[in-house]
Amino acid sequence: MSILVVLIVLAVIVFGALAWLTGIYNGLVRLRNEVKNAWAQVDVQLKRRYDLIPNLIETVKGYAKHERETFEKITQARSAAMSAQGVAEQAKAETQLSQALGGLRLVVEAYPDLKANTNFLALQEELTSTENKIGFARQFYNDQVMQLNNKVQMFPSNIVAGMFGFKLEDFFELEEPEAREAPKVQF
Amino acid sequence: MWEAIRANKRKSVFLAAAMFMLMVGLGFFIGVSLFPASMDIDVDGQTYSVPLFGGVLGALAACGVWALLTVTALFSGGAILMAASGARKIEKEDHPQLFNVVEEMTIASGLGSMPAVYIIDDPALNAFATGRDPQHAAVAITSGLLSRLSRDQLQGVIAHEMGHILNRDILFMQMLGVMAGAIVMISDLYVRGLFYSSGGGRRRSRSSSRGKGGQAQALLLVLGLVFAVLSPIFAQLIYLAASRRREYLADAQSAVLTRYPEGLASALELIEQDSQQLVRLNRNIAPMFICNPYKRGLSAAGLMRTHPPTAERIRILRTMAGAASFAEYQRASERIGAEVNVPASARAAEAGAPIRAAQAEAPRAEKHEQRKLQWRQATDALRGVNKFMFLTCACGLRLKLPPDFKKEKVTCPRCRRELALPVAALAAARSLGDTLERATPPSQPEPRREQPKAQETLSVKRQPGAWTSFRCPCGQVTNLPPGFQAPAVQCPQCKRSIRIDGAA
């Protein structure tokens, strides 16, 4: 009789522990997927910016032929960013690209005709918006990464994370403080 | 974010329950006053006496009306609201900036799907959101507000609406609104019914036959009447109390999403200073706007106002310093002594992110130009939605022709040039859903029409010095200005390449 009671109690404890572990594990998996999903969103926006740049340069070239140096800088930064691997390296390359684009903005200031061009204005709005979208996607990604990292490091979920090999994810931080702000010059 | 919803829930449930009791009570009293207090029912030869028959019947009827309205609201509530406020849906081409900003805020909030975007043709300054869940959400903004806001301000406003969507405020407010609507409807019907039947025949005959019971009946009638008159007012008060609580939370959400509280604060300031009231204003939509849409009268202040005082909202946003988080919003509100309760769970969940710097504005001298441009963009967006046709003259002026414009030629008001209207575009704009054959009959040998297409390559013949318009087989109408030079164009919709033959 008493053995039966002990067995039942044991079974309940084991079952409870299993359910609890499953809950933690599933939570970790959900967070990891959300981080992946959030990164995909960042990636989409980064690609959009790569796609916009050639168009923008073509338009600006029509008015400002002599700014070859600026254009080259952007093109180089763009291809470096496109071939970057991993979150940390990507962040570095994107910072470079943002700076190069900032240079283009200064160039444009000297050409009033260009600033009045509707085509350019439309591209400009697209670029501003894409940069904002990168910023907001990054913001959301970092929030998700922080949630996951907290779970991976904090007791007791860190035990489950260790058992199943959940790792800390990198934040997507742009290095320069200027880069995290929206562009200063508007047209 | 989701924590904020859960914490909100208890008080919301309380308010909803209060409203429900009010509705059932109203039905009950009306029922009691209209029908006999008890009813004998024969079932299989046996007689049962049902007490409070009228009251139960009335309460059930009230619930029935409510259920019917709720189902309608759930499945077409958004569309009805949008129609009631005269909002028009826009696409990206109509107003790229607005569309982009909504997209940005969707990304920031991590919502899977982007809400539909609407413009309300109204010079007043306001915006609102609706929809039963994030998948069916929509945000609307008046053309007046759209033309006055800078990009940062627009972002703040849209983020505030996004906050309502995230916190599921829309569904809740819609359900409460429907309940309030049902109460108003029932009491209206009852009071009017009494008024027009003025001591109605049925009641009189009943009271004369019952004698003493008639007095009790009369008392009940008065009770029912009092209830019917008072309940809509109470329903409105409950509704407004629920609405006011949610505005602060949406403001906090806006600051968290944009990392820039000043954007919303200055937008609110702009809205507050403006004195125009919305043209089409419905009292059930009012609480959904970003700012109290009533500028005058009883609904502009005190218990009857739909929103917390705007000045206070602005001050809280401006007092936020250092971090854009729910916790900081709460601290800011305590600093200025406002009564705001951001749920504790929401405060704990957010790590503070630094408030970002403003996007640089155009220099002062260009401000006026900027305003003009913005105004033009907003009105053009509306014209686009309303099927106006845009015709760019060779001198650079953009003519806007209404969809019912019938003439074949129009004179440019700036350079006096005679412009032949792109006929196909006009026809397309005039009758939407026109078939390809009807708009461009191949038998007609007109020069400005599409040529019968060859195997794969399409070509269009041009007349020198005139507009050429043609319709691609995919339905897209393209207009070529007189100065057009290139040997081919690409259809913007189906990406087909179309050869342009110079004048023969």
Description of the structure:
The complex is a heterodimer of chains A (187) and B (504). Chain A has helices spanning 2-63, 68-82, 87-109, 112-116, 118-153, 157-163, 177-180. By secondary structure, chain A is mainly α. With 504 residues, chain B is of the alpha+beta class. Chain B folds into 2 domains: 2-354, no CATH class; 387-442 and 451-501, no CATH class. Chain B has 15 helices and 17 strands. In chain B, a hairpin with a 5-residue loop joins β14 and β15. The chains are: A mainly alpha (187), B alpha+beta (504). Chains A and B meet through α1 and α5 of A and α3 of B.
A few lines on this structure:
The complex is a heterodimer of chains A (187) and B (504). Chain A is mainly alpha-helical and 187 residues long.
Please tell me what the overall shape of chain B is: globular
The assigned structural class of chain B equals alpha+beta
Supply the number of helical segments of chain A. Answer: 7
Question: Ranges of chain B with pLDDT <50 over ≥5 residues?
Answer: 199-210, 432-456
Q: For the record, give the distance between the C-alpha atoms at the N and C termini of chain B, rounded to a whole number.
A: 66 Å
Features of the shown structure:
heterodimer; A: 187 residues; mainly alpha; 7 helices; 81% helix; rod-shaped; B: 504 residues; alpha+beta; 2 domains; 4-stranded mixed beta sheet; 3-stranded mixed beta sheet; 15 helices; 13% strand; globular
Could you give the topology of this structure?
The complex is a heterodimer of chains A (187) and B (504).
Chain A: H1 2-63, H2 68-82, H3 87-109, H4 112-116, H5 118-153, H6 157-163, H7 177-180
Chain B: H1 2-34, E1 39-43, E2 46-50, H2 53-84, E3 87-89, H3 96-109, E4 116-120, E5 127-130, E6 138-142, H4 143-148, H5 151-166, H6 169-197, H7 201-210, H8 212-258, H9 261-273, H10 310-319, E7 323-324, H11 326-335, H12 344-349, E8 353-354, H13 364-385, E9 389-392, E10 398-401, E11 409-411, E12 418-420, H14 423-430, H15 436-439, E13 458-461, E14 468-471, E15 477-480, E16 488-490, E17 497-501
Parallel strand pairs in B: 4-6, 13-17
Antiparallel strand pairs in B: 1-2, 3-4, 5-6, 7-8, 9-10, 11-12, 14-15, 16-17
Helix pairs in contact in B: 1-2, 1-6, 1-8, 2-6, 3-5, 5-8, 5-9, 6-8, 7-8, 8-9, 9-10, 10-11
